[in-house]
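Supplementary notes for students who missed Thursday's class. We covered one full example, reproduced here. Read the sequence, then the structure, then the short commentary at the end.
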Amino acid sequence: MLVAHGQVKRGFIGIGTVPVHLPADIQKTVGQPAGLLVTSVQADSGAGRAGLLLGDVLLAVDGQALAGPADLLPFLEAERIGQPIAVRILRAGEIKDVQVTVGPASLAAERA
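Structure (token representation):
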């Protein structure tokens, strides 16, 4: 990728996250101890267009549980740009599934 494009291409969905431990009752329901708390959402990003909100907790992407921000990286590879990813979230005690389209990280740099 670096030779062909002069840079490493990455995907971007437009959120900031931090790991968070889930309450015991939610842990039992979803079968995992932690998720990613959404701390920022860019309105004109894939996450913003999908309706993700501050305070949502990302539980899984494409069926794979998330426990730390690095767990998102495999879903943001260059070949995913323009493709939707299935994101399971916890919002106000309810589990929801949303589709988020991965955009190019170069747009993120232009917005900064």
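Commentary. The chain has one domain: 2-111. The beta strands are 11-12, 15-21, 34-41, 57-61, 64-65, 84-91, 94-101, 103-104. If anything here is unclear, bring it to office hours.
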